[in-house]
Amino acid sequence: MTGADLALPPQDERTLPAVVLADLDRQPLEQALDAVQLLVEQHGHLVVVYSRAVPPAVEQRLHTIRSLLESDRIALYRPDLPPLGVAVLARQLRQLASCDLGPGVLASAGRLLTHYLHAGALLGSVARLDRVPVVGLKSHARSWVPGSQFGVLAHPQPELVKAAPDVTLPGPEFGTWMLVGRGQLQSDWVTGTLAPAWKAQGLRETEAPAESADWWGTPKLIEFCAYLPDLSVLYQLVASVRQGVCHWCGIDVIGDRCVFCSATPPPAAELTARSVRALTTG
């Protein structure tokens, strides 16, 4: 993680602790290099999960470190989720890190588990929100009315409603818990209206991550994320997906792209040619 407020408390006793790479853009490059290299040597592989609202200098430093270390054991993963959703996803990966999953499968699992997250926020204004495509000029104009509040779903499908006691957002069709990250907005719409409508099986609260204000365009927010909390369910989801071997670095992965070396499967014609060469030279 790139921020301590993205490292959520453990979900269960098996959840591994998070490693926070704080102030990467403020410390000397050599110091940051040494810290990351030590982590790779200690753990073998490193998956860095960070938000799209991270300062550009931090992301640039991450890519610089990975390039200078010339390591295909460092995966940089920036999911298309709001900051609280990123924190929840990172904790799910920390849960799975205690299981018998290879590093490539574990890192690839982030893309799979993203599909099971419902992430959004209650906002006091959408005038500066440009990350959710459903928000248009008409919505911006309504946001200037004093007292207006808007429920915005960013993932899995963008949606916008004007918050009211009888108005909700489309939610998950399976059992989830809800994590609520409180910012500077005062309202019980998320806990009193949305959570019951989504049939949340459990509810926990925390402070909204520092990056949330930038991502949503306002500090007047209450962020929320519905998620699968049980390790057994998470493991079953990941283990049920067919695994493959990256043709470039040889690591086991799920999906069509290796998160460590970024290689994608070669075209079918190339695979056929390789098979022929292997047979003729074997």
What is the fold's blueprint, element by element?
Elements: H1 29-43, E1 46-49, H2 56-69, E2 74-77, H3 83-96, H4 103-114, E3 118-123, H5 137-143, E4 150-155, E5 159-162, E6 177-182, H6 189-197, E7 203-207, H7 212-216, E8 221-227, H8 231-239, E9 244-245, E10 252-253, H9 268-281
Parallel strand pairs: 1-2, 6-7
Antiparallel strand pairs: 3-4, 3-8, 4-5, 6-8, 9-10
Helix pairs in contact: 1-2, 3-4
What do you see in this structure?
This protein is of the alpha+beta class and 282 residues long. A hairpin with a 6-residue loop joins strand 9 and strand 10. It has helices at 29-43, 56-69, 83-96, 103-114, 137-143, 189-197, 212-216, 231-239, 268-281; strands spanning 46-49, 74-77, 118-123, 150-155, 159-162, 177-182, 203-207, 221-227, 244-245, 252-253. It is built from nine helices and ten strands. The strands form three sheets. Strands 5-4-3-8-6-7 form a six-stranded mixed beta sheet, with helices on both faces. The protein has a two-stranded parallel sheet with strand order 1-2. A two-stranded antiparallel sheet has the order 9-10. Residues 268-282 have low confidence and may be disordered.
